[in-house]
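Bench notes, afternoon.
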Amino acid sequence: VYEGSIAGAFGNRKPPSAAYIAMGPVLYQDSKGTWIGGAFWDGRATGWTLGSPTAEQAQGPFLNPKEQALPDAATVVARICSADYDGISFELVWGSGACAAPDAYDLVARSIAAYEGSSEVNPFSSKYDLSFGSGAKLTQEERRGMALFNGQGGCKACHPNGKGGLFTDYSYDNLGVPKNPENPVYDYDATFVDTGLGGFLESAGYSPDVYTAEIGRQKVPTLRNVALAPGPDTVKTYMHNGYFKTLEGVVHFYNTRDLLPTCPGDYTEAEAMAAGCWPAPEVEANVNHDELGDLGLSPSDEAAIVAYLKTLSDGYGQ
């Protein structure tokens, strides 16, 4: 969870990665009733309007009062049309009169989506990718981690891999992630509960028989670049609310969530790991008890999976 353009204003979720997001589909329900696609953790950038979840997601941060906090779409367009982007003007790309067009803000979003779909954002340049040719070779521990990822760990069910794999099935799940007591949202809304996809579907007017089953479910993110950070001193956070600060903690949680006792309070990840417990889920409804929580992995198994996840960082060898 990060501070926006206004000092002291924080969002209530950890922003998901923009890398590989452009390859996701428009939000839909498959034949089994499973919701797939869309953007944002709760899927509210559906793609139903622009045909692109990525473009619709791009329109959000400009106007969000906790992010860029600009007053309206016209202000965004005016700033872009008066700026110089290395000599590439908005109207040079979209045609004369584009700045005054009724859909100018949509064109802004489509421009951002085009970049987010480019090879610069989606380079497929990790050690894992290069291992399919002659560019890299996974270590014995990394290969063992991959075998556990695909087998006993069950990770592949939601994060399919393989050559060119995107490591997400674009579905939604409630993993039983605890409330993050460090989230600034509780400074101004002590009763905040993130209801995820179910909350969006409710606000969109769906009936209780549709949205109730989705309460607490968050979008399954890609695992590409899951270990990548801007620098060695940057604390990387995980899950929709940033509860986890280490991959080791994430994997241990998946492995032991249903085995360890419930912490007697809102413990942080570090506090829970030290105490040998896990806090109660932020949202109790619809927690996935079928695919995680008691995986039977040893400490060395957990370490091997983490080692494998670290091979998914782009820019290997650069």
